[in-house]
Description:
The chain is of the alpha+beta class and 480 residues long. Helices cover 38% and strands 18% of the residues. Strands 4, 5, 6, 7, 8 and 9 form a six-stranded antiparallel beta sheet that branches.
Amino acid sequence: MLDETPEIDNPDFMLLRLGRKLRKRTGALDEWWRYYRGRPPLPQLPKKAEAAFLDFQRKARTNFCGLITSASVHRLLALGVTGEDGKPDPDAARWWQVNRLDSRQKLVWRVALSQSVGYMLVGEHPTKTELNGRPSPLITAESPRECIVEKDPATGEARVGLKAWHDDIDGYGRARVLYDDTSFPYRTTERCSPHRLPWGPDSWVYAGDREEGEPHDWGMMPLVEFERMPDLGEEPEPEFSAVMDVQDRVNLGVLNRMAASRYSGFRQKWVRGHKFAKQKDPQTGQITVVEQPFVPGPNSVWVSEGESAQFGQLDATDLTGFLREHEADVRDMLILSQTPAYYYANDLVNIGADTVNALDILHVAKVREHIAAFREGLEDVVALAARVAGSERDYTEATVRFANPQHLNPAVLADAATKKKAIGYPLDVLAEEMGETPEQVRRITAGAASQALLAASLLPANPAPTAGNVPVDEGGGDGG
């Protein structure tokens, strides 16, 4: 049985505490995931109509929450790491490429914006080593369903981390409590469900070989958290949290429009003055069948023997109001989530670059806030990777560069760079502003330097002094 003494340095206590917090937030994560994937609760109609409209309910869902999330993820791209001198760091670039962070970072941004928080875990690579013999760093993207951290209330920094998962091979739950100098592995006492790990004190046993845990010399807790813009004192929420009610309203409006279009969108016929044939049940005497001789069709002719028979049709339901309501709800979603209106083009036709930039202002500002928060986490990841690799270089002053989230016309960028070059901006700064990676910046500056050296070597040499080109004051005489 695990020791539940409430101390932060007690790994048994932290395993159960963080595991229960992990289970507690699962309900919210499930709800957010359903909205992100376009599967929110079905829009509801009166109970008497539920059976008739069940198929409509499934078809009425339109996924705008996924669009809102992806619109921000598309603008988030970390380009690489530069040192305190602004130049790309070769070791950090190698770790970046080995761990495929160009693509894996998107997994973290997407889960952080759709599930409120994402994680990166840094450890030792199982197969690759550094020149000094130490293991190369392994950086993995982690899910908030399997990871959680405990923060220091004084500093706000993560002190203890938990990685818990289900082993599909043997059916047991696995967990590891992470500290800045030690980690403690655990295993469930019995096989369990992959969707719900148990968190009772009798459900887990310590699975390590050493009672004091498995030490490491990294000096940092290896689980790095990436929160999506939390308010002060509040838990983070996904990118679309402010518009979930509007998403439900959009789905209900679509359902109402589909129902109106299906059942009253076509002109309904009526007949008056015609005597319909009826049939009675011989046992009960009740009318069981009423003849319906008037069947619509392209070659049908309706005839009645009634002297005053009349035929007519009702007006079809006007769906314009439903469409306007839908447009207004979608517009509200985009405004509240600070997503550019051109993602829902509608009446935006032949808009210019200035209009696009104006529509982008709030969205770009929001993405820059994400960049400011996520950059700090990535810098911690790089510092951890250096310690795992045994690097003696201090990465506290390193900077992770992100691409400019504002989409500008390449011609505009080139024109601005040309003008800045004319007033003395160095080439490497201009290349950074144009969105080049640190490695590409180094290649550009090296290529420019080699071309300048080659051009200088091809210039004609200064001619040797002769009687015709030696100045008078250097011995040429006065000709007398």
